[in-house]
Amino acid sequence: MMRLSILSSLCLGTFLSSTALAAQFEVPSLPTAATVFSDLARVTRKASIDLPAGTHQLRLTGLPLSTRLETLQVDLPGAKLLSATINTDEQTLLQEKSAALIAAEAEIQTIENQIAQVKAQAATARAEAVGAEATLQFLQQLGANDGLGGASAAQLQDIAAMIATQAQTATRTVVAAQETGREIEQQLPPLRAALKQAKTRRDLVNREDRERMFLTVAVEVTEPGVQDVTLNYYTDEVVFWAPYYELHLSTGEAAQLEIKRGVQVLQDTGEDWHDVAITLSTASPTDQSAPSILPPQLRRIEEPRPAPIYKNSARADLQVLAEPLLEPSVIAESAPDWTPDRSGAVLQYELGHQASIATGEAFILDMDVLSTVVTQRAEAVPLYDDKAYRVVAFENTFDERLLGASEVPYFVDGDLVAIREFAALAAGETTEIGFGPIHGLTIARDVLRKNEGDRGVISRSNLEEQDVEITVENLTSEIWPMRLLDRVPYTEQEDLEISWTAEPRPDQENVDNRRGILAWEFDLTPKGQQQISLKIRLQWPEGMELR
C-alpha cells in the first residue's frame, strides 16, 4: 500500500506539469468512519475510481474546512503516489451542494409548484363567477331600460320572465363558482404547512458548509482497473462524546438498581456524516502526554522574623494557617461504558452499526440497561441536616468500568429525586450513592448548658465544655437501617486536652480515616425514636487561645 502524507509531499517541491499528465479525474469522497475523542475526531473518507494505466492527476474533492491539513494522509494501494497539493484559496474552493441539500431544495420547489397550481385552479373556477356577475349586471340594466316604455304588457311580461330566469341561472353560477374556488383553496393550508416543514429541513441540511477544499495528487498506475482511495485526517472543530445515565432504584424486600446507559456524540465539522461507522475512544490526544518536569527544591535557614502586625484584626487571623480544608483531587481514568476493545494502547468502543450525525447536532444512542442488587440505608449528619438521606451501596459486577457523567437523573420507584453527577466506577469497585432525602426521618441536634439545660456553651478562659443531644425520629411506616455521623474535635498538641464521652458509644471512630468523625449504626422502627448524648471537654493552659 502506498501512503502519502500531505506535508511530506508538499515538502518535496517536485510536481508534474499538467502537460505531462495523461488525464485529470474528479474523485468525490464521503466520510465512512470516524473515531471520536474527547475533543476531536479522526475521519476516514473513501472513494473508488476506474483508472487506465499511466500517469494521472486526481482531484479529491469534498474535504471540509475543518480538516487538519498536517494530519491528512492518502492511501492508494494500486498506484504510486508522486506528489500532492491542496487548494485552500477561497476563490477556488469548490461550492458543492450535498445530495441532501439538492433533495431538500427539490422538495421545496415541488410544493411551491403545487401551491401555484392550486391557486390557478381556484382562479379558473372563480372566473366563471365573474362572467355570471357580468350577466347579472346586464340583466339589471336591461330591466331599467327606457326603451321598454312602448312595449305591450305581454311583451313586458315575457321580458321580465326572461330576466328572472337568466338572473337566477347567473346567481346559481356565481354561488357554485365561488364554492368551487373555496373547495380548491382548502388544499392550500396543508401545502403551506408542508412547505414550511420542507424549508425547515432545508435549513437544517444547509448548515453543512458548502465551501470545501480539494486535494490534487499525481499518481502513476501500472495496472488499469478500479482503484480504492482512502483519506484519513483529524478535525479541528467541535467534536466530542460523553456517556449519559439514568439511575432507577426499585425499593422493596430486594432493592434493585437499574443503570440505563447511552452516549451522546456531537460533531460540528461543517459536514454531515451519513451512515458512518462510529468508534468512541477514551484517549485524550490534546491532553498532557508526558510526565511533569520536577524542579529541584532549594531550602535555606535564616533568623526568625517577627510576625507582621495587621491593623485590621480580621487580617490577623490570617497569620495562623489552618490545615488544608480539601484533600488533593483525584482524577479518575476514563473507561468505556459498554463492551470495550482493549487490544490497543487505549480503550475504544464501536457502536456496532452505522450512524448518521448532522453537523451541529447531537446524536444520542441508548445502549443497554445494567441491573444489580443493592443495599440501602438512611444516613444523617445532624450538624448540618435536619433530615436523613437514602444511601445505596452496590458493587460494579459488570466486568467493565463505568465512566463518570454529569447531570444524571436519579429515580426512586419511578419518581425523580435528584439530578447530580455519577463518579467513574472501576470493575469490582464498591460505591455508595445518595438517592435524595427521606422526609419522614427527622433529625434534631441541640447543644445544652449543663447547669441550666438551656442551649449554649459553658466556657472560661481556658476551658470549654459542651453537652450535645441528638434525636432521630422515624415518622415513616417502615424500618430504616440508620447511620448517624457526628464529630468531636481532635488535636496534635499535648497542651490542648480533649476528652469526650457518648451514650450510646459510637460504633465507629475516625470514620474513613477522618480524625474525630464518629458513626452510630442502628435500626429505627416505625414511629420509633433514638437519642444520642455527647459530652465534649477541652482544656488548655492559661494565656493561650483556642482556635
From TrEMBL:
<feature type="domain" description="DUF4139">
    <location>
        <begin position="230"/>
        <end position="542"/>
    </location>
</feature>
<dbReference type="Pfam" id="PF13600">
    <property type="entry name" value="DUF4140"/>
</dbReference>
<dbReference type="InterPro" id="IPR011935">
    <property type="entry name" value="CHP02231"/>
</dbReference>
<feature type="coiled-coil region">
    <location>
        <begin position="94"/>
        <end position="128"/>
    </location>
</feature>
<feature type="signal peptide">
    <location>
        <begin position="1"/>
        <end position="22"/>
    </location>
</feature>
<dbReference type="InterPro" id="IPR037291">
    <property type="entry name" value="DUF4139"/>
</dbReference>
<keyword id="KW-0732">Signal</keyword>
<keyword id="KW-0175">Coiled coil</keyword>
<protein>
    <recommendedName>
        <fullName>Mucoidy inhibitor MuiA family protein</fullName>
    </recommendedName>
</protein>
<feature type="domain" description="DUF4140">
    <location>
        <begin position="34"/>
        <end position="138"/>
    </location>
</feature>
<dbReference type="Pfam" id="PF13598">
    <property type="entry name" value="DUF4139"/>
</dbReference>
<dbReference type="InterPro" id="IPR025554">
    <property type="entry name" value="DUF4140"/>
</dbReference>
